[in-house]
Automatic annotation (TrEMBL):
Matching InterPro entries: ArsR-like_HTH, HTH_ArsR_DNA-bd_dom, WH-like_DNA-bd_sf, WH_DNA-bd_sf
Pfam family, one: HTH_20
Domain HTH arsR-type: 2-96
Protein name: ArsR/SmtB family transcription factor
Domain of life the protein comes from: Bacteria
Record-linked PANTHER family: SLL0088 PROTEIN, TRANSCRIPTIONAL REGULATORY PROTEIN
Length: 118
């Protein structure tokens, strides 16, 4: 996977998770498989609107759907969620590195950090 592909995947993942309804759907499908109609009954929106949310999550690879008779069953993809967590951990490490460098600069600063008037 090229760096551009990885960035496109990150964009899709974070776009999918940027919506609170989709995050809630993810919580539900990670806890266990749900039919799309059962998911739709949990929200004050149309079945079609919930289907669109599920489609965004599926396109991002965060959930998978399978057919069981007339129902579409959705389940969360733990591997995809771990990849999001990994990306956030990577960003946190960059941030922690910057904080550590700032701490080092402050510690090595020869100028007094406070002045006292006498």
């Amino acid at each position: 996977m090229t760096e551009s592909d990885e960035e496109d995947r990150a964009d899709a993942l974070f776009h999918a998770l940027a919506d609170r309804t989709r995050r809630d759907i993810m919580r539900r499908v990670l806890a266990g498989e749900h039919s799309v109609s059962a998911l739709a009954s949990k929200y004050d929106m149309s079945f079609a609107a919930v289907q669109k949310h599920v489609a965004v999550l599926e396109k991002a690879g965060l959930l998978t759907k399978r057919r069981d008779g007339r129902e579409q069953l959705a389940s969360g993809d733990v591997t995809a969620v771990r990849s999001v967590a990994s990306m956030l951990t990577e960003l946190e490490q960059v941030w922690r590195g910057r904080i550590a460098r700032i701490d080092e600069l402050i510690a090595s600063d020869p100028t007094p950090h406070h002045s006292q008037k006498e």
